[in-house]
Every structure is written in C-alpha cells, then in structure tokens.
C-alpha cells in the first residue's frame, strides 16, 4: 500500500476506505442534487508513460504467460479463410452452423471439421511437424498502478484518471472518469457538469497528482475550488454549447502538453480559457509519496 508522507497541504485519508458507486450516477443534474450536501471532492492523477526501460521489470509491470494456438492450427484457420474467399459473412454463416452442431465447442469444431478438411494439406508444408503442432506462448505486460485499493486498476488508454469522491451515511464513495473509453468519457462529463453546478453554490475541492514514468505517485497541488482537466469534457454527454459555457463558467481547468513527460501545468478559468489563473513547474511543486510497505 502506498504510504503518503504527511504534509500540511494534503490529507492522506482522501485515498482511504473508498466504496465504489454501484448506483452508477450518470446524469449531471441528479449528481448535483444528490451530492451537494455530501462533501464532494475530486482527485486527478495525470498519467505519464512508463519509462520503456522498466517494462520487463516485475516491480513495474506484471507479467502474464498466455497460451496461443499452435502454428498448425493457425494455418488450418487461414486455409478455412482462403476457402471462404475471405468473405466474413460466408465464414460466419458456416461457423455459426458448426457452433449449433457442436454446442459452442470450438475444440470439437477444429478437430472434426477444420482438421478433417485442411489438416493434411497444412502438414505437407511442415519440415518439423511435431514442433509446429505444439502450443505457443506470449508474455503480456501490464503496468502496475500503485494506488491504494480499490483504486489500483486503471485503463491505460487514459491520459488521466479522474476520481470523484463523496460521503454518505458515514461511508465514502467514488466514481471514475477518463478519456480512454466512451463510458469513461460519459461519466467524466456527467460528474464534471454536476460538480460544476455544486461548485457555483459551494466550493468543491480538487487535488492534483502525477503518476510519473517511474510508477511514483507525486502530489502536485490542492485547489479550494473545482479544478479538473479540460480534455474531453462534454464528450459522450450532450449539452448545448450555451449550456456548457454557463455551467462551466466558474470552473478551473488544467492543461498540459501531452507529448512526453509532464513538465508544466497551466490553470485556466472557464470552459473557453477566459482567464489564466496560474502556471507552475511540476518539478518544483511535486511531493514524492514513497511506498514504505506500510
């Protein structure tokens, strides 16, 4: 578990004892209504790319051995595709009949249909038949996300991880948004619009972090008012431009150069960056949160 070095501007309890929002709030007006008296706040973790030299180290990326089909079976499937003229509709129609016949058993289809039709032809192409009939393997590498559970999984297609937190009946709940999938963009937009409505009446604090290329979580800055990345706000969530501009008028937005590692952040006010609030260097402002195995 990650251990957060105590400091006067950050409360480590922010990451602790979180429960996932199983109700799935996805409407911005409902979010504003439901959460206005539940102490909402946001965490944004900007995601740098992992240093390429670290990908094969188990302390930085997990390694999973995945079994692949043999070269023999791969060539049998290619022969089947060739026979269908690479017509996907024709292939699906034939294979669909086999699925019904063999009750969705792909191994039976390979053995009784595909090997019977194409096996001998494929074997003629081999010099080492035994070797090419052996299963093959590959190693799947997945970068580690060293945040406390249950936050320790993330969609790495995202360039940032937005975590929305609130309190209810003595417990803390969270939802997540990002840019990696349509669902993540929808939740991200809904929560930002909803929290923006709350922020117009009472401030929604925000906390900004960097997960750097060494898998280190760095605390950058806390803001007393809603401050979130501008990327993809409004994506997969449809409001008029006039409504978006009205709702987001008092919100602060974070912008950065996404090419290469994060070096500098700029904070603007308003959806159209009407006013620059501040600009600061990541190197000068970050605080390291070392994993002390506590």
Question: Can you tell me about this structure?
Answer:
With 294 residues, the chain is an alpha+beta fold. Helix content is 29%, strand content 27%. It contains eight helices and 13 strands. The strands form three sheets. The protein has a seven-stranded mixed sheet with strand order 1-6-5-2-7-8-13. Strands 9-10-11-12 form a four-stranded mixed sheet. Helix 1 packs across helix 6 and helix 2 (71-83) crosses helix 4 (106-123). It is elongated and about 75 Å long. It starts with 17 loop residues before the first strand and ends in a 5-residue tail after the last strand. 26% of the residues are buried.
SS-derived structural category = alpha+beta
pLDDT averaged residue by residue? 87
Q: How can the largest sheet be summarized?
A: 7 strands, mixed
Percent of residues in β-strands: 25-35%
- Give a count of the beta strands, DSSP E runs of length 2 or more: 13
Gyration radius over CA = 26 Å
What pattern of helices and strands is seen along the backbone?
Answer: EHEEHHHHEEEHEEEHEEEHE
The dominant shape is elongated
Poorly predicted parts: 1-9, 289-294
Residues in helix, %: 25-40%
Distance between the termini: 6 Å
- Counting H and I runs of at least 4 residues, what is the number of helices? 8
Lateral arrangement of strands in the main beta sheet: 1-6-5-2-7-8-13
């Amino acid at each position: 578990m990650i251990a957060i070095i105590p400091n006067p501007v950050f409360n480590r309890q922010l990451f602790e004892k979180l429960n996932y929002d199983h109700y799935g709030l996805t409407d911005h007006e409902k979010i504003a209504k439901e959460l206005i008296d539940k102490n909402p706040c946001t965490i944004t973790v900007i995601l740098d790319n992992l240093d390429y030299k670290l990908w094969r180290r188990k302390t930085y990326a997990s390694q999973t051995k995945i079994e692949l089909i043999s070269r023999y079976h791969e060539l049998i499937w290619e022969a089947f595709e060739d026979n269908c003229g690479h017509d996907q509709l024709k292939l699906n129609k034939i294979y669909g009949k086999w699925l019904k016949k063999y009750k969705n058993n792909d191994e039976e289809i390979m053995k009784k249909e595909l090997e019977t039709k194409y096996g001998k032809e494929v074997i003629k192409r081999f010099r080492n038949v035994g070797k090419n009939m052996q299963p093959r393997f590959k190693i799947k590498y997945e970068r580690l996300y060293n945040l406390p559970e249950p936050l320790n999984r993330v969609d790495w297609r995202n360039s940032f991880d937005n975590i929305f937190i609130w309190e209810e009946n003595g417990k803390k709940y969270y939802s997540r948004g990002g840019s990696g999938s349509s669902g993540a963009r929808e939740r991200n937009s809904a929560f930002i619009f909803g929290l923006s409505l709350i922020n117009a009446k009472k401030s929604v604090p925000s906390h900004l972090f960097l997960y750097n290329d060494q898998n280190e979580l760095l605390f950058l800055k806390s803001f007393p008012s809603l401050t979130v990345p501008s990327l993809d706000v409004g994506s997969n969530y449809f409001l008029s431009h006039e409504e978006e501009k009205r709702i987001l008028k008092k919100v602060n937005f974070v912008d950065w150069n996404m090419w290469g590692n994060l070096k500098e952040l700029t904070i603007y006010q308003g959806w159209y960056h009407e006013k620059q609030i501040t600009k600061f260097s990541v190197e000068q402002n970050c605080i390291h949160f070392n994993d002390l195995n506590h």
